[in-house]
Design goal:
Blueprint: E1 3-10, H1 14-25, E2 30-33, H2 43-46, E3 51-52, H3 60-70, H4 77-98, E4 105-106, E5 109-110, E6 123-124, H5 130-144, E7 148-151, E8 154-161, H6 162-165, E9 178-185, E10 191-201, H7 222-230, E11 234-235, E12 240-247, H8 258-262, E13 266-268, H9 288-302, E14 307-310, H10 316-322, H11 324-331, E15 342-351, E16 354-356, E17 368-370, E18 375-376, H12 389-405, H13 429-446, H14 453-476, H15 481-502
Helix pairs in contact: 1-5, 1-12, 3-4, 4-12, 7-15, 13-14, 13-15, 14-15
Bound molecules: flavin-adenine dinucleotide.
């Protein structure tokens, strides 16, 4: 069996949904695949704080300046210009007017909240579950669209490229190009190709390669690994942003949004001392990398596994109304944030780098695009400004959706491919679990918040060995989502480590002691 479409989109977070809807509204046939069982998936669903819009007395230059400062000299200015030029208008036209996302209002206007390193209040939100509100408003439109075929519960294994998959040896002399992907139906384990004139990667981030992460279980770095194997260029993979505040003691690290600090929350150590003044003049609202490393340092100096976020001085009813999801979650751990300090630790949160793309979302491989967190547009440089990622996913999703709608004859060649060959060995869950632990602990301890040359080289040796073991395992195994994700996780971890070793300058989220 095979399928064919004009546009194949892998991933149904905000970036994938917007790309799919834009292309479909332009009359293109789209197949949208997603490896979870609901369309509202990925980090998008979990986004809390909000999305950048426009503040009072705000302008494009102010926003651009804030992004460039946070990015620590590594942003690509044309990309930042595109974001500030198009982004806020797209929030209005698409999210507010077209999809009627219910952003909070205050005195008849959109409520504007503050987050770290923003010079003005310019972030709109839906309580503290903005991503859920956006996903649930946008996904039904895609679901009903006559030009979109949705395949939930399907996992992309590898991109199809002319140089890797064509049976015609002469194709090697053509320019490298992508013409779809191998997809597995998670329920039946059947693998089949989807041939596409253009393919858009929208697979989100890689947080799951770290032991502590805010990301959902699907963020296993699949898109970076698939792009790398296909020969597309990766950029800035070592710039991993760590969120300063996730709940300590929970099995899965639950994020405490930056807006809690934006609204007046303070950080204290185990001796009840407010410590951020030692590290930065903006205190709790310093750029994320600085707050996260300050917490890390404070934990080391005080010999404590966490610090505390304290909001007890704020109005109690207001807290409960403004942060209902966080309040509810904390209650499930018997923590009442209106009366108790919240124990917090940093966790891997966002990949600032990724598959290098142009202003139109094109990768270095013909007919392959990347949007959202998996892409490196250059907007974030070495450190992302809070609440820019949803805006970037929206902007590049829209731009790429329009770009692939301009399909030309060059995008139409589909070579004959070799038959898919699966392994026969049953999956060994113990091996998979142990390999993941190895990846996650190695990344956390050696390529985490504070890196050293020795730690990074140790990680490189571990991943060199582990990636060949896992590749061997993958070749022999019966296909499953678990083995696909493990293979991608180790490839992505190895890539992050190699980028980290190559860059000897301390910048933004890359910090070598
Ligand atoms: C807890 C949390 C809070 C956040 N808060 C904010 C915030 O307030 N503001 C902000 O701007 N940003 C925030 N972010 C970051 C932001 O949510 C993400 O960067 C953004 O949503 C990424 O969108 P995306 O569409 O690129 O990817 P995602 O939303 O992660 O979607 C990825 C999609 O790809 C699918 N997928 C992955 N691999 C495969 C595969 N092999 N085959 C098929 N499908 C696949 C997944 O199932 C999913 O559908 C937050 C992130 C987290 C985790």
């Amino acid at each position: 069996m095979f399928k064919q479409t004009e546009v194949l989109i892998i991933g149904s977070g905000l970036a994938g949904l917007i790309a799919a809807i834009t292309a479909a509204d332009n009359g293109r046939n789209v197949i949208l695949i997603n490896k979870t069982d609901t369309l509202t998936s990925g980090s998008t669903y979990w986004a809390q704080g909000g999305i950048i819009f426009r503040g009072n007395e705000d302008d494009k230059n102010k926003l651009m300046e804030d992004i460039l400062v946070a990015g620590d000299g590594a942003c690509w200015q044309p990309a930042v210009e595109q974001l500030v030029d198009l982004g806020p208008d797209l929030v209005k036209d698409i999210l507010i007017d077209k999809f009627n996302v219910k952003f909070d209002q205050s005195q008849g206007h959109l409520d504007l909240t503050e987050e770290g390193a923003h010079s003005v209040r310019r972030i709109i939100h839906s309580k503290d579950h903005t991503g859920k509100a956006i996903s649930e408003a946008v996904a039904p439109y895609a679901q009903k669209h006559k030009n979109i075929t949705i395949l939930n519960n399907h996992t992309a294994i590898d991109l199809l490229t002319i140089s890797h998959h064509s049976t015609n040896p002469l194709d090697l002399y053509d320019k490298p190009a992508c013409f779809g992907a191998y997809i597995m139906n998670n329920s039946t384990s059947e693998v089949f190709p989807i041939f596409a004139n253009n393919t858009i990667l929208a697979t989100g981030g890689l947080g799951q390669i770290y032991i502590n992460t805010t990301n959902p279980s699907e963020s296993t770095g699949d898109g970076y690994a698939m792009a790398y194997r296909a020969g597309a260029r990766l950029l800035n993979m070592h710039y991993i942003q760590f969120h300063p505040t996730t709940v300590y003691g929970a099995n899965e690290r639950f994020l405490i949004s930056e807006s809690v600090r934006g609204e007046g929350g303070i950080l204290v150590n185990k001796y009840k001392q407010r410590f951020m003044s030692k590290y930065h003049s903006s205190m709790e609202l310093a750029p994320r990398d600085i707050v996260a490393r300050s917490i890390y340092n404070e934990m080391l100096e005080t010999g404590s596994p966490n610090v505390y976020l304290d909001v007890r001085h704020l109005d109690k009813d207001w807290i409960v109304n403004r942060f209902p999801s966080i309040n509810k979650y904390l209650h499930s751990f018997d923590i009442d944030m209106t009366h108790e300090k919240i124990p917090v630790v940093p966790a891997a949160h966002y990949s600032c780098g990724g598959v290098g793309v142009s202003l139109r979302g094109r990768t270095s491989l013909q007919r392959l695009y990347a949007v959202g967190e998996v892409a490196c547009t250059g907007v974030h440089g070495a450190n992302r400004l809070a609440s820019t990622s949803l805006l970037e996913a929206l902007t590049w999703g829209w731009v790429a959706g329009n770009t692939v709608s301009e399909i030309t004859k060059e995008d139409e060649y589909f070579p004959k491919i070799f038959d898919w060959e699966d392994g026969t060995e049953e999956m060994d869950n113990a091996l998979i679990a142990q390999d993941w632990l190895n990846i996650k602990n190695t990344m956390w301890n050696y390529v985490g918040l504070v890196r050293t040359k020795a730690r990074m080289h140790r990680a490189q040796t571990i991943f060199r060995h582990l990636s060949s073991e896992v590749e061997d395992f993958y070749r022999k195994a019966k296909m499953s989502k678990e083995i696909i994700q493990l293979r991608n996780g180790v490839t992505t971890a190895y890539a992050v480590t190699n980028f980290a070793i190559e860059d000897r300058t301390n910048r933004g989220s890359h910090f070598i002691k």
